[in-house]
Amino acid sequence: MIRTTAVPRPVRIGTALLGVAGIVTLAGCAGGTTSDAAAPAPVETTAAPAATSAPSESAATGSAATSGTYADGTYEATGQYATPESVETVDVTLTLAGDTITDVTVTGDPQAAESRRYQSEFIGGIAGEVVGKKLDEISVSKVAGSSLTSGGFNNAVETIKTEAKA
After folding, report:
1. 0.70 exceeded by the pTM?
2. SS3 state of residue 136
3. What is the mean pLDDT of the chain?
4. Could you tell me if 154 and 139 are in contact, meaning their C-beta atoms sit under 8 angstroms apart?
5. If phi over 0 gives left and psi between -120 and 50 gives alpha, with beta otherwise, what is residue 98?
6. Which residues sit opposite 97 in a β-bridge?
7. Please, are residues 22 and 28 in contact by the beta-carbon 8 Å criterion?
């Protein structure tokens, strides 16, 4: 059958772009991928260290083999991530001692009801995933069923790594 009315080109292009955006969004939901090449383009994050402290004298006089990459202290950063409904943010506060995470606090300001549920589940399970681990060893992909919130968390952690470099 031959169509006699064609769909206007701007509508076709818009539909194609919408399809690509949907695929990119769904790719962010895929569990188990930790490669930045497979992830959507990073979202800009902002950070401000809440309270930083230089390494203590005792830490500075420790063995050269155990000298830390990151300065001990408490750091805060905000990470953003996209959901199908909105762009969400999570505020992450990490306390570091000897390059190891000793405490984590995540707070969110969800814009959508579904985001509220997933952020709540993520916040309830993140401490068990990262406390006691080296900062360079963590890369969260899914916590308590929440896979998109982890993207914002990982963005904030990357900012904290930059801020905490010793």
Report:
1. no
2. helix
3. 74
4. yes
5. left
6. 100
7. no
- Main-chain phi, psi angles of 80, to 5 degrees: -110, 155
Report the alpha-carbon angle 59-103-145, nearest 5: 140
The residue written with tokens 């064609």 in the block is 6
**How many C-beta neighbours within 10 Å does residue 97 have?**
15
**pLDDT for the residue numbered 142:** 80
Q: How far apart are CA 31 and CA 53, in angstroms?
A: 36
Q: Mind listing the pLDDT tens digit for each residue in 61-73?
A: 333 334 568 899 9
Strand partners, 143: 146
CB 89 within 8 A of CB 152: yes
Q: Where are the domains of the chain?
A: 41-164
CATH architecture assigned to 41-164? Alpha-Beta Complex (3.90)
Give the 3-state secondary structure of 12-73: HHHHHHHHHHHHHHHHHHCCCCCCCCCCCCCCCCEECCCEECCCCHHHHCCCHHHCCCECCE
Straight-line distance from the first to the last Cα atom of the chain, in angstroms, rounded to the nearest whole number = 69
Most confident of 8-12, 47-51, 83-87, 101-105: 101-105
> Of 137, 59, 73, 68, nearest to 99 (Cα)?
68
